[in-house]
Specification:
There is one protein chain. This protein is of the alpha/beta class and 224 residues long. A seven-stranded mixed sheet has the order 1-3-4-2-5-6-7, with helices on both faces.
Length: 224
């Protein structure tokens, strides 16, 4: 019966290399104040480079805003829009003075304007390639659906920009354990074909909390 039921929070064990101390450090950091402090639509509008930045990228409707809200324990830190492709700028959030979270515009929405698509080939690529404080990009993929051409295109773009990126599977509660394992196998086979891809996968659900403590711990370790 287990394979016939969607995943629930807590069904998977924490990564073995994440100690209780690492999980607690992640909890503490993401319980700190998190505030929006800058929005940029052009490179010349970027805030001064300082500290460590982690950017979140993904196709429109992948659940990026929901994941950011779940990580920070806030309901409205990042706006959740019913209109895909609404985010048109780089949004910067300060987390406890230790980490900057960057919400990137969604990509791949079929009805998105040519300008949004051009932004990803222009401004977003320039940001990824030239931002000295950008330590990692978290590339979100919807666990329930096939990997789209737009996802492959962005992975190739990240490879060209030489920015380390880690794949985060979202909405994992919508899959059976067997289905989720198949999706992870698919991604594991994909990662070695991309030189900038980080070898580990994060599996999450903003709805149930699956994988959220572990992802907080992973991001917190990047600040150390």
């Amino acid at each position: 019966m287990a394979d016939d039921a969607p995943h629930q929070a807590g069904e998977t064990e924490p990564r073995q290399d994440l100690t209780d101390e690492a999980l607690e450090a992640g909890r503490k950091l993401f319980a700190a104040e998190c505030r929006f402090f800058y929005g940029a639509q052009r490179l010349d509008q970027l805030p001064p480079a300082a500290g460590i930045e982690i950017a979140f990228a993904g196709r429109s409707n992948v659940g990026k805003s929901s994941l950011l809200n779940a990580l920070t324990g806030r309901n409205s830190l990042a706006r959740i829009s019913s209109e895909p492709g609404r985010t048109r700028q780089l949004n910067f959030f300060d987390l406890g003075g230790r980490l900057t979270l960057v919400d990137m515009p969604g990509y791949g929405y079929a009805r998105a304007s040519k300008q949004i698509k051009a932004d990803w080939q222009g401004m977003m690529f320039d940001y990824l390639r030239g931002r000295t404080t950008l330590l990692r990009v978290m590339l979100l993929l919807d666990a329930r659906i096939e990997i789209k051409k737009a996802d492959h295109d962005v992975m190739a773009l990240l490879d060209r920009a030489a920015v380390t990126y880690q794949i985060v599977l979202t909405k994992a509660d919508g899959l059976t354990p067997a289905g989720l394992e198949r999706k992870q196998d698919e991604v594991r086979k994909l990662i070695p074909t991309h030189p900038a891809a980080f070898p580990e996968i994060a599996v999450t659900s903003a709805e149930t909390g699956l994988g959220i403590p572990e992802l907080r711990a992973v991001l917190t370790q990047l600040t150390e």
